[in-house]
Design a protein that fits this description.
This protein has 339 residues and is an alpha/beta fold. The protein is built from 14 helices and eleven strands. The chain is globular, with a radius of gyration of 22 Å.
Length: 339
Protein backbone atom coordinates (compact mmCIF):
# COMPACT_ATOMS: atom_id res chain seq x y z
CA UNK A 1 0.00 0.00 0.00
CA UNK A 2 1.24 3.48 -0.89
CA UNK A 3 -0.18 6.35 1.17
CA UNK A 4 0.22 9.76 -0.49
CA UNK A 5 -0.24 12.68 1.91
CA UNK A 6 -1.68 15.88 0.41
CA UNK A 7 -1.77 19.38 1.87
CA UNK A 8 -3.99 22.14 0.47
CA UNK A 9 -0.95 23.39 -1.47
CA UNK A 10 -0.46 19.90 -2.94
CA UNK A 11 -4.08 19.73 -4.08
CA UNK A 12 -3.63 23.07 -5.85
CA UNK A 13 -0.55 21.76 -7.68
CA UNK A 14 -1.94 18.35 -8.65
CA UNK A 15 -2.55 17.76 -12.36
CA UNK A 16 -3.07 15.11 -15.02
CA UNK A 17 -0.42 14.74 -17.71
CA UNK A 18 -1.43 16.14 -21.12
CA UNK A 19 -0.02 13.14 -23.01
CA UNK A 20 1.47 9.72 -22.40
CA UNK A 21 5.07 9.52 -21.23
CA UNK A 22 7.19 7.58 -23.78
CA UNK A 23 9.55 6.12 -21.18
CA UNK A 24 6.71 5.00 -18.91
CA UNK A 25 5.18 3.47 -22.08
CA UNK A 26 8.44 1.59 -22.66
CA UNK A 27 8.59 0.40 -19.06
CA UNK A 28 4.98 -0.71 -18.78
CA UNK A 29 4.93 -2.33 -22.23
CA UNK A 30 7.94 -4.41 -21.17
CA UNK A 31 5.86 -5.53 -18.18
CA UNK A 32 3.30 -6.95 -20.60
CA UNK A 33 5.88 -9.49 -21.79
CA UNK A 34 6.40 -10.70 -18.22
CA UNK A 35 2.86 -11.85 -17.41
CA UNK A 36 -0.21 -13.36 -19.01
CA UNK A 37 -2.42 -11.32 -16.69
CA UNK A 38 -4.57 -8.93 -18.71
CA UNK A 39 -3.01 -10.00 -22.00
CA UNK A 40 -6.43 -9.84 -23.69
CA UNK A 41 -6.30 -6.05 -23.43
CA UNK A 42 -3.22 -5.89 -25.67
CA UNK A 43 -3.49 -9.18 -27.57
CA UNK A 44 -2.96 -7.68 -31.03
CA UNK A 45 -0.10 -5.50 -29.76
CA UNK A 46 1.55 -8.51 -28.10
CA UNK A 47 1.43 -10.70 -31.24
CA UNK A 48 2.47 -7.97 -33.65
CA UNK A 49 5.24 -6.53 -31.48
CA UNK A 50 6.85 -9.91 -30.81
CA UNK A 51 6.93 -10.54 -34.56
CA UNK A 52 8.39 -7.09 -35.27
CA UNK A 53 11.06 -7.53 -32.60
CA UNK A 54 12.10 -10.84 -34.20
CA UNK A 55 12.17 -9.29 -37.68
CA UNK A 56 14.34 -6.39 -36.50
CA UNK A 57 16.72 -8.67 -34.60
CA UNK A 58 15.80 -7.10 -31.25
CA UNK A 59 14.13 -10.00 -29.46
CA UNK A 60 17.28 -11.32 -27.77
CA UNK A 61 18.42 -7.85 -26.62
CA UNK A 62 14.99 -7.11 -25.18
CA UNK A 63 14.98 -10.44 -23.35
CA UNK A 64 18.53 -10.19 -22.01
CA UNK A 65 18.89 -6.44 -21.37
CA UNK A 66 15.57 -4.61 -21.06
CA UNK A 67 13.34 -7.10 -19.25
CA UNK A 68 15.93 -7.77 -16.49
CA UNK A 69 16.11 -3.99 -15.84
CA UNK A 70 12.40 -3.21 -16.08
CA UNK A 71 11.23 -5.92 -13.74
CA UNK A 72 7.50 -6.26 -13.15
CA UNK A 73 8.16 -6.50 -9.44
CA UNK A 74 8.53 -4.35 -6.33
CA UNK A 75 11.18 -2.13 -7.94
CA UNK A 76 12.94 -1.05 -11.09
CA UNK A 77 15.45 1.85 -11.19
CA UNK A 78 13.97 5.35 -11.11
CA UNK A 79 16.57 6.74 -13.53
CA UNK A 80 14.96 4.70 -16.34
CA UNK A 81 11.81 6.89 -16.28
CA UNK A 82 13.15 10.43 -15.80
CA UNK A 83 10.72 13.29 -15.21
CA UNK A 84 11.95 15.14 -18.31
CA UNK A 85 10.33 12.57 -20.59
CA UNK A 86 6.96 13.37 -19.01
CA UNK A 87 7.29 17.05 -19.80
CA UNK A 88 9.52 17.15 -22.91
CA UNK A 89 9.21 13.81 -24.72
CA UNK A 90 11.35 10.86 -25.76
CA UNK A 91 14.56 12.61 -26.84
CA UNK A 92 14.72 14.71 -23.67
CA UNK A 93 14.04 11.62 -21.54
CA UNK A 94 16.82 9.62 -23.20
CA UNK A 95 19.22 12.55 -22.72
CA UNK A 96 18.26 12.58 -19.04
CA UNK A 97 19.17 8.88 -18.76
CA UNK A 98 22.58 9.65 -20.28
CA UNK A 99 23.07 12.58 -17.90
CA UNK A 100 22.27 10.56 -14.75
CA UNK A 101 25.25 10.71 -12.36
CA UNK A 102 27.12 7.41 -12.15
CA UNK A 103 26.82 7.27 -8.35
CA UNK A 104 23.02 7.42 -8.60
CA UNK A 105 22.98 4.67 -11.23
CA UNK A 106 25.20 2.48 -9.02
CA UNK A 107 22.92 3.04 -6.01
CA UNK A 108 19.73 2.22 -7.91
CA UNK A 109 21.20 -0.87 -9.60
CA UNK A 110 22.38 -2.06 -6.17
CA UNK A 111 18.87 -1.55 -4.85
CA UNK A 112 17.46 -3.54 -7.78
CA UNK A 113 19.91 -6.33 -6.97
CA UNK A 114 18.89 -6.40 -3.29
CA UNK A 115 15.15 -6.44 -3.99
CA UNK A 116 14.67 -8.65 -7.06
CA UNK A 117 18.12 -9.36 -8.44
CA UNK A 118 20.03 -7.45 -11.14
CA UNK A 119 21.93 -8.89 -14.12
CA UNK A 120 25.69 -8.96 -13.58
CA UNK A 121 26.34 -6.51 -16.42
CA UNK A 122 23.97 -3.86 -14.97
CA UNK A 123 26.72 -2.36 -12.78
CA UNK A 124 28.39 -1.13 -16.00
CA UNK A 125 25.47 1.29 -16.51
CA UNK A 126 27.28 3.66 -14.17
CA UNK A 127 29.56 4.27 -17.18
CA UNK A 128 28.19 6.63 -19.82
CA UNK A 129 29.27 4.35 -22.68
CA UNK A 130 27.07 1.54 -21.32
CA UNK A 131 24.12 3.93 -20.97
CA UNK A 132 24.65 5.05 -24.56
CA UNK A 133 24.22 1.44 -25.63
CA UNK A 134 21.09 1.18 -23.48
CA UNK A 135 19.66 4.38 -24.96
CA UNK A 136 20.18 3.08 -28.52
CA UNK A 137 18.29 -0.08 -27.59
CA UNK A 138 15.49 1.91 -25.92
CA UNK A 139 15.09 4.07 -29.01
CA UNK A 140 14.94 0.99 -31.26
CA UNK A 141 12.44 -0.72 -28.96
CA UNK A 142 10.24 2.39 -28.84
CA UNK A 143 10.19 2.57 -32.64
CA UNK A 144 8.92 -1.02 -32.83
CA UNK A 145 6.71 -1.42 -29.76
CA UNK A 146 5.34 2.03 -28.91
CA UNK A 147 5.51 4.44 -31.86
CA UNK A 148 3.19 2.39 -34.17
CA UNK A 149 0.48 2.61 -31.48
CA UNK A 150 0.80 6.30 -30.65
CA UNK A 151 -2.62 7.19 -32.08
CA UNK A 152 -4.34 4.50 -30.01
CA UNK A 153 -2.44 5.58 -26.91
CA UNK A 154 -3.28 9.23 -27.55
CA UNK A 155 -6.97 8.46 -28.00
CA UNK A 156 -7.16 6.51 -24.73
CA UNK A 157 -5.25 9.19 -22.81
CA UNK A 158 -7.55 11.89 -24.20
CA UNK A 159 -10.58 9.82 -23.18
CA UNK A 160 -9.14 9.49 -19.68
CA UNK A 161 -8.48 13.23 -19.46
CA UNK A 162 -12.02 13.98 -20.60
CA UNK A 163 -13.45 11.67 -17.94
CA UNK A 164 -11.25 13.14 -15.22
CA UNK A 165 -12.13 16.70 -16.33
CA UNK A 166 -15.80 15.87 -15.86
CA UNK A 167 -15.08 14.56 -12.38
CA UNK A 168 -13.24 17.79 -11.64
CA UNK A 169 -16.11 19.97 -12.85
CA UNK A 170 -18.83 17.91 -11.18
CA UNK A 171 -17.17 16.97 -7.90
CA UNK A 172 -14.03 19.08 -7.54
CA UNK A 173 -10.41 17.95 -7.32
CA UNK A 174 -11.09 15.54 -4.47
CA UNK A 175 -13.84 13.95 -6.56
CA UNK A 176 -11.37 13.59 -9.42
CA UNK A 177 -8.90 11.84 -7.09
CA UNK A 178 -11.65 9.48 -5.97
CA UNK A 179 -12.45 8.65 -9.60
CA UNK A 180 -8.93 7.68 -10.70
CA UNK A 181 -9.90 4.01 -10.65
CA UNK A 182 -10.45 1.01 -8.41
CA UNK A 183 -6.74 1.09 -7.54
CA UNK A 184 -7.02 4.18 -5.33
CA UNK A 185 -9.11 5.41 -2.41
CA UNK A 186 -9.27 9.02 -1.29
CA UNK A 187 -9.75 9.79 2.40
CA UNK A 188 -8.75 13.40 2.95
CA UNK A 189 -5.89 14.20 3.17
CA UNK A 190 -4.49 10.80 2.08
CA UNK A 191 -4.69 8.97 -1.25
CA UNK A 192 -4.41 5.21 -0.67
CA UNK A 193 -2.98 3.45 -3.72
CA UNK A 194 -3.14 -0.32 -4.26
CA UNK A 195 0.59 -0.65 -4.75
CA UNK A 196 2.83 -3.68 -5.09
CA UNK A 197 1.89 -6.07 -2.24
CA UNK A 198 5.47 -6.16 -0.93
CA UNK A 199 5.61 -2.35 -0.58
CA UNK A 200 4.17 -0.42 2.35
CA UNK A 201 5.21 3.21 2.57
CA UNK A 202 4.14 6.83 2.95
CA UNK A 203 4.87 9.62 0.48
CA UNK A 204 4.65 13.21 1.77
CA UNK A 205 4.30 15.67 -1.08
CA UNK A 206 5.40 18.71 0.99
CA UNK A 207 3.75 21.25 -1.29
CA UNK A 208 5.08 19.80 -4.58
CA UNK A 209 1.74 18.42 -5.78
CA UNK A 210 1.38 15.23 -7.82
CA UNK A 211 1.51 14.63 -11.56
CA UNK A 212 -0.67 11.69 -12.64
CA UNK A 213 0.46 10.00 -15.87
CA UNK A 214 -2.13 7.80 -17.64
CA UNK A 215 -0.23 4.73 -18.82
CA UNK A 216 -1.77 2.79 -21.70
CA UNK A 217 0.12 -0.46 -21.07
CA UNK A 218 -0.29 -0.42 -17.28
CA UNK A 219 -3.10 -2.66 -16.04
CA UNK A 220 -2.79 -3.91 -12.48
CA UNK A 221 -1.85 -1.06 -10.14
CA UNK A 222 -0.24 2.41 -10.06
CA UNK A 223 3.54 2.92 -10.04
CA UNK A 224 5.50 5.79 -8.50
CA UNK A 225 9.14 6.66 -7.99
CA UNK A 226 10.82 4.82 -5.13
CA UNK A 227 12.94 7.87 -4.24
CA UNK A 228 10.72 10.36 -2.34
CA UNK A 229 13.10 13.16 -3.27
CA UNK A 230 12.20 12.96 -6.97
CA UNK A 231 9.31 15.00 -8.46
CA UNK A 232 6.11 13.24 -7.36
CA UNK A 233 4.77 11.26 -10.32
CA UNK A 234 2.26 8.42 -10.34
CA UNK A 235 1.66 6.34 -13.45
CA UNK A 236 -1.96 5.20 -13.33
CA UNK A 237 -3.56 2.30 -15.22
CA UNK A 238 -6.22 2.84 -17.87
CA UNK A 239 -9.34 0.71 -17.74
CA UNK A 240 -9.57 -1.41 -20.89
CA UNK A 241 -12.95 -2.84 -21.83
CA UNK A 242 -13.14 -5.84 -24.19
CA UNK A 243 -14.49 -4.83 -27.58
CA UNK A 244 -14.98 -6.96 -30.67
CA UNK A 245 -13.18 -5.51 -33.71
CA UNK A 246 -15.48 -3.91 -36.27
CA UNK A 247 -16.21 -6.16 -39.26
CA UNK A 248 -15.12 -3.51 -41.71
CA UNK A 249 -14.00 0.11 -42.04
CA UNK A 250 -16.71 1.93 -43.95
CA UNK A 251 -15.49 4.83 -46.14
CA UNK A 252 -15.76 8.21 -44.44
CA UNK A 253 -17.95 9.53 -47.23
CA UNK A 254 -20.53 6.86 -46.40
CA UNK A 255 -20.46 7.77 -42.73
CA UNK A 256 -20.57 11.53 -42.67
CA UNK A 257 -24.05 12.52 -43.61
CA UNK A 258 -25.50 15.62 -41.93
CA UNK A 259 -26.55 13.82 -38.75
CA UNK A 260 -23.25 12.03 -38.17
CA UNK A 261 -21.27 15.19 -38.92
CA UNK A 262 -23.32 16.93 -36.24
CA UNK A 263 -22.65 14.06 -33.84
CA UNK A 264 -18.92 14.30 -34.54
CA UNK A 265 -19.03 18.06 -33.81
CA UNK A 266 -20.86 17.43 -30.53
CA UNK A 267 -18.11 15.05 -29.38
CA UNK A 268 -15.35 17.65 -29.91
CA UNK A 269 -14.89 18.24 -26.17
CA UNK A 270 -16.26 14.91 -24.96
CA UNK A 271 -19.95 14.07 -24.65
CA UNK A 272 -22.14 11.31 -23.29
CA UNK A 273 -24.75 9.63 -25.47
CA UNK A 274 -27.49 11.66 -23.79
CA UNK A 275 -25.59 14.92 -24.36
CA UNK A 276 -25.13 14.06 -28.04
CA UNK A 277 -28.87 13.45 -28.37
CA UNK A 278 -29.71 16.81 -26.78
CA UNK A 279 -27.08 18.73 -28.77
CA UNK A 280 -28.10 17.29 -32.14
CA UNK A 281 -31.83 17.05 -31.44
CA UNK A 282 -32.19 13.30 -31.98
CA UNK A 283 -33.30 10.39 -29.83
CA UNK A 284 -30.89 8.64 -27.49
CA UNK A 285 -31.13 5.45 -29.57
CA UNK A 286 -30.22 7.37 -32.75
CA UNK A 287 -27.32 9.05 -30.95
CA UNK A 288 -26.09 5.63 -29.85
CA UNK A 289 -26.29 4.24 -33.41
CA UNK A 290 -24.38 7.20 -34.87
CA UNK A 291 -21.75 6.96 -32.13
CA UNK A 292 -21.29 3.27 -32.87
CA UNK A 293 -20.76 3.98 -36.58
CA UNK A 294 -18.23 6.71 -35.83
CA UNK A 295 -16.44 4.50 -33.34
CA UNK A 296 -16.27 1.61 -35.85
CA UNK A 297 -14.77 4.04 -38.37
CA UNK A 298 -12.05 4.98 -35.88
CA UNK A 299 -13.25 8.58 -35.43
CA UNK A 300 -14.28 8.44 -31.77
CA UNK A 301 -13.52 6.29 -28.77
CA UNK A 302 -15.98 5.39 -26.01
CA UNK A 303 -15.59 4.42 -22.39
CA UNK A 304 -18.00 3.93 -19.51
CA UNK A 305 -18.22 6.90 -17.15
CA UNK A 306 -20.43 6.03 -14.19
CA UNK A 307 -23.87 5.18 -15.53
CA UNK A 308 -23.13 6.84 -18.88
CA UNK A 309 -20.84 6.26 -21.85
CA UNK A 310 -18.43 9.11 -22.59
CA UNK A 311 -17.34 9.61 -26.21
CA UNK A 312 -14.20 11.49 -27.25
CA UNK A 313 -12.45 12.12 -30.56
CA UNK A 314 -9.57 9.98 -31.76
CA UNK A 315 -6.67 11.80 -33.50
CA UNK A 316 -8.22 10.82 -36.86
CA UNK A 317 -11.62 12.19 -35.82
CA UNK A 318 -10.06 15.42 -34.56
CA UNK A 319 -8.12 15.85 -37.83
CA UNK A 320 -11.26 15.26 -39.89
CA UNK A 321 -13.16 17.80 -37.83
CA UNK A 322 -10.39 20.39 -38.23
CA UNK A 323 -10.30 19.79 -41.98
CA UNK A 324 -14.05 20.26 -42.22
CA UNK A 325 -13.87 23.53 -40.31
CA UNK A 326 -10.99 24.75 -42.48
CA UNK A 327 -12.95 24.02 -45.69
CA UNK A 328 -15.98 25.84 -44.30
CA UNK A 329 -13.79 28.82 -43.41
CA UNK A 330 -12.29 28.91 -46.92
CA UNK A 331 -15.74 28.84 -48.54
CA UNK A 332 -16.92 31.76 -46.40
CA UNK A 333 -13.79 33.93 -46.99
CA UNK A 334 -13.99 36.32 -49.97
CA UNK A 335 -11.07 36.05 -52.43
CA UNK A 336 -9.51 38.97 -54.30
CA UNK A 337 -8.21 38.73 -57.87
CA UNK A 338 -4.77 39.94 -56.73
CA UNK A 339 -2.73 42.79 -58.26
Amino acid sequence: MLRVHFSDADLARTRLCTASDPLWDIATSLHRFQTRQGRWAHAEWYRTTRQRLRERGLERAVRSMLIPLYRRAAYFPDFLTPFRATTDGLDAGLEAILATPGRRVRAEVARLDRIVGAPTWAARLAERSAREELVRLLRAYHAVAVAPYEEQVHARVEAERAARARELMDRGLEGMLSGLGPWVRWERPVLYADYNPSVDRDLYLDGRGMLFVPAYFLLERPISFADPGLPPVMAIPLIHEPQAPPPSRAPLTALLGRARAAVLHSVAHGATTGEIARAVGISASSASRHATALRDAGLITSRRHGASVLHTLTPVGAALLRAGRAQKSERSTPHSDGL
